[in-house]
Amino acid sequence: MANRDNPHGLRSLGRTLSGGCPYVTELSKAVGYGTTIFINDAVNRVADGSIEASATPGTTIYSGVSLTHGILSTATDHLVIISPDAVYEAQDNAATDGLVAADMGLNANLVLNAGSTTTLISGHEINETGAAETNTLDVHLLQLYDAPDNAAGSWCRVEIVFNMHRMNPGRVGV
To answer: Which among 77, 116, 121, 138 has most CB atoms closer than 10 A?
Structure first.
């Protein structure tokens, strides 16, 4: 069965690498931030302490994943998973080829696509074209997500963790 193209950001699997539950806290988006934060968007803190969902893949130290939606140019509070070892499931962005079993254990950047204004769900995906051993990439690919409707290849879903995280900036790679 072929995978379907259904970007949904970084969906929490409700566990961490250490086996516990991920920690969630409230963080705020500033009124001047001109972009929407969607549910399951990877977010990062900026100089004033607020969060944003726009980052530069491969160079941003993420703060976590937003569980709530916030419209553009409006101050909003967000529940954010901030555990540095939280495990997420995300889709790769490839219409052809995609990630395969040999890519597991490698690293990749995120593609920070805009989310859906209808569902309010993130459009963030894994950039499958850059899967490499380079541990400075955004996320570590743990394994294919185990589900009957998921297989290696185009638009497959993969379990991931952040390589660089604000709460644990010294950890690079897993």
So the answer is: 138
Burial letters for 95-104: b for 16+ Cβ neighbours within 10 Å, e otherwise?
A: eeebbeeebb
- Of 12, 42, 19, 20, which Cα lies nearest the Cα of 111? 42
Q: What would the pLDDT profile of 76-131 be if each residue is shown by its tens digit? A: 999 999 999 999 999 999 888 889 999 999 999 999 999 999 999 999 999 988 78
Q: Beginning with the edge strand found earlier in the chain, give each strand of the sheet holding 11-16 in spatial order.
A: 11-16, 86-91, 157-162, 139-144, 107-108
Kindly state the DSSP code that residue 102 receives in the 8-state scheme. G
- Of 154, 159, 129, residue with least CA distance to 143: 159
Task: Tell me the C-alpha distance between 37 and 70, whole Å.
Answer: 5
Supply the DSSP symbol for 103: G
| Cβ pair 10, 122 in contact under 8 A | yes
Pairing between strand 125-126 and 64-66? unpaired
Kindly state the average pLDDT of the residues 63-73.
Answer: 95
